[in-house]
Amino acid sequence: MSGEELNQTNFDELARESARILDERIIASLERGPEVSIPADFAARVAAKVPARKPVAVSSTHYGWTAMWAGLALLFMVLVAIGVKGAAGSVVGTAVEWTLLVQFLVFATWLVLRKRTES
User: Fold this and answer.
1) Stretch 87-95: mean pLDDT, rounded?
2) Has this prediction a pTM greater than 0.85?
3) CA distance 75 to 96
4) Average pLDDT for residues 10-35, to the nearest whole number?
5) Per-residue pLDDT for 3 more than 60?
6) Please, which pLDDT band fits residue 46 given cuts at 50, 70 and 90?
7) Is the distance from CB of 72 to CB of 108 less than 8 angstroms?
8) pLDDT band at 6 (very low <50, low <70, confident <90, very high)
9) What is the mean pLDDT of residues 26-55?
10) CA gyration radius for the chain?
11) Considering only CA atoms, which of 96, 95, 93, 90 is closest in space to residue 75?
């Protein structure tokens, strides 16, 4: 190669040869098994080093129940305001009023049943 001119034909042959050698090296690396061996008791040793978890005390708060009852009260006030204003004169007003009423009834029923099962 030293002293030879590099023309397009030689360059193409050199590129094909380099690609072939690279392919052979990649195949040989993939066919070789892993060189890492993991000891049989590795998992047991790691598990033994992990400190035991202390149980976390979970205390229930009243904030969730307060927010749910406040939401129910707000929904009731909206229903009263819509009823007093007389929005039921239109189809949309009637639909909104009935939708809010159904939501109120379902929400109130759910809260009462949850409170009974929790006690």
Assistant:
1) 78
2) no
3) 12
4) 88
5) no
6) very high
7) yes
8) low
9) 86
10) 38
11) 96
**Residue 13: closest CA among 26, 1, 25, 29:** 1
AA identity, residue 84: V
| Angle between helix 63-85 and 91-118 (nearest 10) | 150
Domains in the chain: boundaries: 63-118
Q: What is the three-state SS of the chain?
A: CCCCCCCHHHHHHHHHHHHHHHHHHHHHHHHCCCCCCCCCCHHHHHHHHCCCCCCCCCCCCCHHHHHHHHHHHHHHHHHHHHHHHCHHHCHHHHHHHHHHHHHHHHHHHHHHHHHHHHC
Residue type, 108: A
